[in-house]
Amino acid sequence: MVGTVAYMAPERFEAHEPAVGPAADIFAWGVLITYAGTGSTPFAADSPAATAARILTQPPALGRLPSPLREIVARTLAKDPSDRPTAAQLLDLLLDTGSHGAAELTGHPDLRQAAENAQARDPRPRDPQARNPQTRDPQARDAQARDAQARDAQARDARVQGARRVGRRRVLATLVAAVAALGGAGAWIAADSPERGPDASGPVTSLKPAGSGKPAPTVRQAEGRVLISDRLDRPGRWEAAEDELGTCSFAGGRMVVTAGAGGANSCPGPEDRVAGDQSVAVTATLLEPRSCAWIGFRRLSDALGYNLFLCPDRVTLSVDAGDTRNTVTTVRSAIFTGGDHRIELRLEKGVATFSVDGVRLGTGPVGDRRLLTGRIELGLEIDGRGERGSVAFRDVEIRKL
User: Fold this and answer.
1) Whole-angstrom distance, CA of residue 294 vs CA of residue 74
2) Average pLDDT along the chain, 401 residues, taken 10 residues at a time
3) Looking at CB atoms within 10 Å, which of 146, 262, 264, 285 has the fewest?
4) How far is it, in rounded angstroms, from Cα 379 to Cα 296?
5) Pfam families, alphabetically (predicted)?
6) Which residue range(s) make up the domain with 95?
């Protein structure tokens, strides 16, 4: 397998190399359109390994890609190949996004012919409207499109509509050309397209283990299956926010959380609920005195879930149960001071084990039957009478054990 990582579909990274089909080309098309529309590929990162990790675990960053193109591109970037549209379905979606349609390809007979050929080659059923023989007939399509345009003309200012139609026709022609090429071109994007985005990393010959013939960057292997991975160097699975509790922002390659006097704050994160044995690893830094980094796990609400607090003089595991907070265990240690520290929390067989920088600090039971699943949250709590607090996080990874 050769190609540029940023354009590769998730299935290309499977260890056993399952069959990679046209769905991988649809994924690459989505990457290409995102880059054309935003100036960045949707899983941009600083290295091939980081880019591959984002492709496997992160939702696409589509920037200011306009609707309805945004929704169409999002479908082409689905992790599961079966969730992506075929080339013919994609073409139907593009030709059915409002007041424009095949009529706008009137000045491009070559593209119209290529589009019809692409539709005819695809044996799988398309959207319901595409199953109607009248909508597949060029003259019927043109008539429908003209009717829709006439209705729009009555509702819109003629001058503004004319200006929009010119730009839309150019965009539609370009998109259809790309889709028509996908109909029979094979994996040309993933194999030959140059990477020009900010995550430029050059061509990769293989992501196989050593022994495949040529060395290549690989995603770091660790125990368990990755569920969530985020470098926290920009808004992604976690988002920026500001309210009366404090702020969540991204600066210096990390996520910075602040809170006011005697308070606490957490950043908006993924809504995924993680159940069963799992691990959470993240790098954290205490930026203000009396700040405690907080990892919430199996959280069901603000008042229900587990906590791991990492303070300058201790690490505490506790559980929130309605109006009460019960301490499970506390370990006195000054290990979590002065610079970055890698935290690992493992939940196995009803026991939580927490470590800092590879040093196992303690364990505690996490057997509350109400809390068999829940969200992972990141934030801080101010210890005692601290006037304000701030903590930085980066490189979070959540795995299913």
Assistant:
1) 33
2) 79 71 91 89 89 90 84 91 87 63 51 56 44 43 52 42 42 58 46 38 34 36 78 93 92 94 86 91 93 95 94 94 92 90 95 94 93 94 81 95 90
3) 146
4) 8
5) Pkinase (PF00069)
6) 5-192
Looking at the structure of the chain, the number of domains it has is 2
Strand positions, DSSP E, 20-102: none
Q: Which DSSP string do the residues of 327-394 spell out, in sequence order?
A: EEEEEE---S-SS-EEEEEEEETTEEEEEETTEEEEEEE---TT-SEEEEEEEEEE-TT-S-EEEEEE
Peptide bond into 312 cis (omega under 30): no
Phi, psi at 385, each rounded to 5°: -100, 20
For residue 58, report the phi and psi dihedrals to the nearest 5 degrees. -105, 150
Say yes or no: 383 and 253 in one domain.
yes
Q: Which residue has the tokens 């019809």?
A: 116
Dihedral in degrees, nearest 10, Cα atoms 77, 81, 82, 87: 70
**φ and ψ at residue 365, rounded to 5 degrees:** -70, 140
pTM score, two decimals? Answer: 0.49
Identify whether the C-beta of residue 322 lies closer than 8 Å to the C-beta of residue 303: yes
Q: Among 321, 356, 365, which Cα is nearest to 336's?
A: 356
